[in-house]
Amino acid sequence: MKISVIGAGYVGLTTAACLAHIGHEVRCTDSDRGKLAVLESGRMPFYEPGLDAIVSAASANGRLRFVGAHEALAHGEALFICVGTPPLANGDADLSAIESVAREIARHAQGYRLIVEKSTVPVQTGQRLRRHLDIYGRAGLEYDVVSNPEFLREGSAVEDFFHPDRIVVGAESGRARRLMEDIYRPVLDQSFACPVHAACPPGRAPAAFIVTDTNSAELIKHASNSFLAMKISYINMVSDLCEAAGADVDSVVQGIGGDRRIGASFLRPGIGFGGFCFPKDLQAFVRIAETFGCDFGLLKQVEAINLARVDRFVARLRDELWTLAGKKIAVWGLAFKPETDDVRFAPAIAIIRRLLAEGAEIHAFDPQAMEKAQRELPAIHLHADAYAAAERADAALLLTEWKEFQQLDWARVAAAMARPLIFDGRNALPAPDLAAHGIQCVGIGKAVSTAPGKAVSAAPSKAVSTAPGKAVSAAPSKAAPVQTAAGPAHPRAALAEAGR
Ligand SMILES: NC(=O)c1ccc[n+]([C@@H]2O[C@H](COP(=O)([O-])OP(=O)(O)OC[C@H]3O[C@@H](n4cnc5c(N)ncnc54)[C@H](O)[C@@H]3O)[C@@H](O)[C@H]2O)c1
After folding, report:
1. In the chain, what percentage of residues exceed pLDDT 90?
2. What CATH number belongs to 2-212?
């Protein structure tokens, strides 16, 4: 089928390249001419594992081309809208890019068009799109609007496209539903040459094709992300309780996650969630609910807990270092998660801003995100690897759990640092190995241990696992502010700070 994808970001470029890979004739456009020029020249505008090879193969065989808006609108029977929907200051989704695309479609499209909302939008946006096209559309424009929310995860976007759990389609007509089924047929049947796995399918059940009305499909996306965010905030509160009560959150997660009704995924305690989806989608969902007269207090609390993670982490570091001014802090990881260069709303960026504000000197390394992080934080020093960043540091912070950080040469790290102290913000480091090399490791939701394997309860505690021979501070910690119902004074302001 002839398909055009509007917006060549993480979602749009992945969608365009993967649709071309499964056999469609795809044209992809973006309002950012610089990004289009990068793509036309065969380069990638961002890092996403495996995507570059699919883009270049599809470009070489002509199934994927990067074109201007007019050519894209003329080409596609199906128009996939993949533009950004960032948060406004009040938490609402900013739909100006969606509106701008709707205007272009109304002005230029002719004949039949299947308009596919892939961007994450508030419920009833499809209805608004229809109204807009009815009012402004050219004579002879026939269309269906479908909602096809995207569930890909940055870092595994290609895999997620080819092997989704489900494909949700909110369609109001049989024609629209059939077209969407045709578009995704190769994925549903797994009848394509998989660029990810040597042998496919990778032992998973085939994707469910879930057809709903458009309002429900739009709501599914916000409800899914908010639920996952809720799991993360829940386990973060449990981890605070573990620290205070002398329990170990990893053991608790093992016990909770063993229940199939709950599952262990997204029960990872740490410095909180970030990225371009969870924080903004959570806020938008709360706002959407308010619009319809529902007070989603549960999700407000999820947001408040998440924002407090940054305060808590910085406070614990300050407590351990006494003061932060003039301290040299190594930061391992800047992206909001591993396997991406995306730093939008990354907790690492929010934490570094706080540390810089208190006068700390930041020496950072991230395998992919340094260029983007430097634009946000020009004052930080960037290094070629984790060891160089840790040179003469008073503490090192693991803020993104890239695999390579989990496999560092701990003897080398210990020798490089002024004080062998690591704050593991993701509970991803091998704490016993660190202790064996004389490194004090502060994890999340851990009981105090005086030596490897010997846990002592020290409530109210700091989760400090010390190396043999190191003193343990077990004084009541000011560093762990208790989460209140109200959360930080201005959660949205804090989030805006985290994201910019
Ligand atoms: N990033 C994710 O992991 C993810 C996952 C699922 C859903 N989503 C949703 O998908 C949407 C896109 O997210 P993203 O991460 O790809 O964003 P992005 O910022 O990476 O990409 C959006 C692109 O749209 C372009 N654009 C903006 N206005 C345009 C216009 N009028 N015409 C053409 N192009 C325009 C921008 O230049 C940009 O390149 C958002 O609604 C997001 O919530 C994102």
Report:
1. 86
2. 3.40.50.720
